[in-house]
Design brief:
mainly beta, five-stranded parallel β-sheet
């Protein structure tokens, strides 16, 4: 599926749990999803990229977004810096088996609800702007903070789980959601922690 739309075109993923799977790869004008129209993400859809070569995912608003190549060890560049990348539900990196890197460093700001980094996958942080997490965090692969800043902005009860030490330490983080409560289920290391609002609890 090419995904290229004109200015009057709309791709509506509706609210029936549709999954749009994009098997292509590419950058520099060859991206598998190019949207000059409107992508309506719906309320429970998933856009899944499975291409096996390096790929740019253009700035867009998604409901669920998954990068899980079937083979190879590609890098997915998350956002092109023209706007903001938004994931309203779950951002999933990897399939628990194949190697993949999701590099969030090219974008201005990302706002992601739940972040899931699966085994054999790597997520690289944003050194130029904030990564805003409005839900929970789970890392069973590798997180490279890249000198970036992560702001946990939820106003609800959330969990921080998986590997958050050593090569996957959290970097500079802030908790700023009014009334938010975050519980760590494992040891956590960070270069710096700011508690602007909410409560951080150990398990």
């Amino acid at each position: 599926i090419n995904g290229t739309g004109g200015s009057a075109d709309t791709l509506d993923l509706a609210s029936s749990g549709y999954t749009l799977t994009l098997t292509g790869s590419g950058m520099g004008g060859s991206e598998p999803l190019q949207n000059a129209g409107t992508l309506t993400e719906g309320t429970n859809s998933t856009v899944k990229f499975v291409g096996t070569s390096n790929t740019l995912i253009m700035d867009e608003t998604f409901h669920n977004l998954t990068v899980a190549p079937a083979s190879g060890s590609p890098t997915y560049t998350m956002g092109n810096g023209s706007s903001n990348l938004v994931v309203n539900a779950s951002m999933t990196v990897g399939d628990g088996s194949n190697v993949v890197i999701a590099d969030f460093g090219a974008d201005e700001t990302q706002t992601i609800h739940d972040m899931f980094i699966l085994a054999n996958a790597t997520a690289k942080g944003n050194p130029v702007a904030s990564m805003n997490i409005s839900g929970s965090w789970s890392n069973n692969g590798t997180y490279d903070d890249a000198g970036g800043f992560t702001d946990f902005i939820s106003t609800s009860t959330e969990t921080l789980s998986g590997t958050m030490t050593g090569s996957s330490e959290m970097g500079s983080i802030q908790f700023s959601g009014s009334g938010g409560q975050w519980t760590t289920t494992a040891n956590m290391e960070a270069q710096g922690i700011s508690m602007a609002a909410g409560t951080l609890l150990g398990s």
